[in-house]
Design brief:
About 0% of the residues are buried. The protein has a domain of about 40 residues. It contains 1 helix and no strands. It is mainly alpha-helical. The protein starts with about 35 loop residues before the first helix and ends with a helix.
Length: about 80
């Protein structure tokens, strides 16, 4: 029931004779890549904006950490008195 059924007289695959017409390999040239100036400007602008945002986040995190340390030391001195 689940066994494959093979044909009674299998026919051989047709013979394919490939005769090269040229002995030199065919060289296909790719079209030149043209990137517009607007695309380059957009990528550079995006990189500058993302770098500025990352720097702003880093400066904000450092300033919050410094403020936390200062407040902690002020509160510690206040509790000692």
């Amino acid at each position: 029931m689940f066994l494959p059924k093979y044909p009674d007289n299998p026919t051989p695959p047709p013979a394919h004779a490939h005769v090269p017409t040229d002995s030199a390999p065919v060289r296909r040239s790719l079209p030149p890549i043209s990137i517009s100036t607007g695309a380059v400007a957009a990528v550079i602008t995006g990189g500058v904006v993302l770098t500025a945002l990352l720097a702003a986040v880093a400066v904000s995190a450092i300033s919050v950490a410094i403020a936390a340390v200062v407040l902690r030391s002020l509160l510690r001195e206040h509790h000692r008195r």
